UniProtKB/TrEMBL annotation:
Belongs to the 4-toluene sulfonate uptake permease (TSUP) (TC 2.A.102) family. Its main location: membrane. It comes from the Bacteria. It is a multi-pass membrane protein. Keywords: Cell membrane, Membrane, Transmembrane, Transmembrane helix. The keyword Cell membrane applies. GO terms for cellular component: plasma membrane. The chain crosses the membrane at residues 29-51, 72-92, 98-116, 175-197, 204-225, 263-281. This is Probable membrane transporter protein. InterPro entries: TM_pro_TauE-like, TSUP/Inactive_protease-like. Pfam families: TauE. PANTHER family: MEMBRANE TRANSPORTER PROTEIN MJ0441-RELATED, MEMBRANE TRANSPORTER PROTEIN YTNM-RELATED.
Length: 309
């Protein structure tokens, strides 16, 4: 029972992260399940089943707030579903020994990306421009869906930055469209895992706990953006993902690392993580100070010039 309560709380926190950054639910949830003993395929299958509910709730909330571009959703969701089904089928066919390093490597790379992306550049921003083309969205969706299923997460880390970098869709609609299309990807990935693993490969209680926590958080994800700096949150989450998956990598039989090397790896990751969070906090405070100074300058009203008669 304690495990289910923990998973529900973690699902809630992961959805708040995802709603703030446009990424993070699958990566953080899968990392937790692997840490408590789930197999790679079982962890990804459980998370994707939970995401059917969380993404539906999140997509509905974004639609109500006008944050969804349905042309983008249509053009990215279908290839994303194809990629997710193929990725789930591939991961289901691999042995645990072969799948563990693959998933840890993907999660570790995604954690490094999230840490560097938000520490160095802060919250992603984009500019309005021309409509996004199908030849761009199709391959993006296919790659994002495949990585999402094989890594237990990745739809947001792949799709959100690419759409923002294109400069053709405003940030709120990027996050809303990515979250909404993820529902189709989660359904396709779940179908692939059920075909490859059967019902026995999924922990239904864990999936339900994650679903409940995430569904509760989805409509209120925007709250955290107002009260917690996304830049700092991205650095915190990225470092947590790196540290957890570093433990999996250095403890694995496929990459034997002596105890001294393991300790040095943990210390190095912790030091980089602390430095990244410190940098993000300082950058956030500097940005706030600059915004306040700009606002104060705008409020200054020059005195009228009096005629000297």
């Amino acid at each position: 029972m304690q495990t289910l309560i923990l998973l529900a709380a973690f699902g809630l926190a992961a959805q708040l992260v995802d709603g703030s950054l446009g990424m993070g639910y699958g990566v953080t949830s899968t990392t937790l399940l692997l840490a408590i003993g789930a197999t790679p395929a079982g962890a990804s299958a459980t998370v994707h089943l939970a995401q059917i509910g969380t993404t539906l709730s999140s997509g509905f909330a974004h639609w109500r707030m006008g944050n969804v571009d349905w042309r983008v959703v249509r053009r990215i969701a279908v290839p994303g579903a194809v990629g997710a089904f193929l990725g789930a089928t591939l991961l289901s066919s691999l042995s645990t020994e072969a799948a563990a390093p693959l998933m840890s490597a993907i999660l570790l790379a995604l954690g490094v990306y999230v840490l560097v992306r938000f520490t160095a550049w802060g919250t992603p921003r984009g500019n309005l421009g021309k409509p996004l083309r199908r030849r761009f969205l199709g391959p993006l969706g296919l790659a994002g869906g495949f990585i999402d299923a094989t890594g237990g997460g990745g739809w947001g880390p792949v799709g959100t930055p690419a759409l923002l970098a294109s400069g053709r869709l405003e940030p709120r609609k990027v996050i809303g469209s990515v979250c909404t299309s993820e529902f189709i990807v989660a359904v396709a990935a779940s179908a692939g895992f059920l075909v490859g693993l059967g019902h026995a490969g999924v922990d239904w209680a864990w999936a339900a706990a994650l679903l409940v926590g995430g569904s509760v958080a989805a409509p209120f994800a925007a709250w955290i953006v107002r009260h917690f700096p996304p830049r700092v949150l991205g650095s915190v989450v990225g470092g947590m993902i790196i540290l957890t998956n570093t433990r999996t990598v250095v403890n694995g039989d496929w990459l034997p690392v002596p105890p001294v090397g393991q300790v040095l790896a943990y210390v190095a990751v912790a030091a980089v993580w602390a430095a990244a969070v410190t940098w993000s906090v300082r950058a956030h405070l500097a940005d706030r100070a600059a915004e306040k100074a700009a606002a104060d300058r705008d409020l200054v009203v020059p005195e009228p010039v009096r005629d000297r008669a």
